[in-house]
Every structure is written in structure tokens, then in C-alpha cells.
Amino acid sequence: MTYRVCFVCTGNICRSPMAEHVFRSQLEDAGLGAAVEVDSAGTGGWHEGDGADPRTIAVLDENGYTSTHVARRFRASWFSDLDLVIALDEGHLRELRELARTPEEAARIRLLRSYDPAAGDRLDVPDPYYGGREGFDECLEMVKAAGEGLLAAVRLEIEERTP
């Protein structure tokens, strides 16, 4: 059975596609690429159908990650098909919890940086959209660091499911 993870930010053109591509690469490197399906979405639909922000694409490409992406909006009906919904900041966490129809669905929502022990109480990945390139580089570093802890958690979940 495939484990399914969806990263969620605001418009699905900066943070969540970056997290999607980085985590997919981390899974491949760990030999879990076939066991885990990774996707991303936004809480809003402003950019539906658009590609990722050019700065996101540049940072991903320059660091050896894939960057093909089409933005879309998260739908409450997706919860039933997802094992984990990863919010990029507290605002997304709140919006996703409001969309959850059951306590079980709400329990599947986590903040990405909660998987990075070095994050401390700074659990938001700041939105780089209105800033310069350095914000996208910072976002990449946060996503990579949290991805390592997320990878360990997903690996454990998969192992627990395997008879």
C-alpha cells in the first residue's frame, strides 16, 4: 500500500512545491520512492494551473532537484486518500484543520518544521514570495532539514504497516 504525503502552502507556487520536490528526492535516496507518493497544493486557488515561481524553479534546478509543477488548491475530499498533510506554516495548519471533516483527518495534519529538532519553537517556513532570492535559498535549507526528520517518521510508519 502506497503511503501518501501532501505539502500545503498558500498558493502552491513557492514553499510546497519546493518541499514536494526535495522530499521526493530524499525518499528516492533512501530507497522509499516507490513506497511513498508525494504531492503539494495551496490553501488558495489564485495560482491554479500555473507553474512554480521562477525563483523556486531556479533554486530547485541549481541544487539538483526536479522542478516540474502545476499549482492546485487543496480540497477537503483529499483527506481520505492522504496519510499525512504537511502545512508549511501555522496559518496553513489552521486552514487545513478547518477543512478537516473528522478528528481523524485533523490528526493527519502536521507542521513541516516540527520534524526538525533544530527549529525549536520557530515552526513556520517563512513565505519567500514577496522577498528576494535569499528567501528561497533559506526556504530550501529549512525544507531539507525538516525533510530528514519527516523521512524518519514516514519510514517508521511504513515499517509499522508492513506485516
What does this structure look like?
This protein is an alpha/beta fold and 163 residues long. It has one domain: Response regulator (Rossmann fold, 3-Layer(aba) Sandwich). It contains 5 helices and 4 strands. Strand 1, helix 1 and strand 2 form a beta-alpha-beta unit. The termini are close together. 38% of the residues are buried. The mean pLDDT is 97. Pfam families: LMWPc. This is protein-tyrosine-phosphatase. One of its GO terms (molecular function) is protein tyrosine phosphatase activity. InterPro entries: LMW_PTPase, Ptyr_pPase, Ptyr_pPase_sf, Tyr_phospatase_low_mol_wt. Keywords: Hydrolase, Protein phosphatase.
Per DSSP E runs of 2 or more residues, the count of β-strands stands at 4
Rg from alpha-carbon coordinates? 15 Å
Q: Work out the count of structural domains.
A: 1
- The DSSP helix count reads 5
CATH class: Alpha Beta
Largest sheet: 4 strands, parallel
Q: How would you spell out the order of helices and strands?
A: EHEHEHHEH
Give the spatial strand order of the biggest sheet. 2-1-3-4
Structural class assignment? alpha/beta
Keywords: Hydrolase, Protein phosphatase
Domain Phosphotyrosine protein phosphatase I: 3-153
Pfam family, one: LMWPc
InterPro entries: LMW_PTPase, Ptyr_pPase, Ptyr_pPase_sf, Tyr_phospatase_low_mol_wt
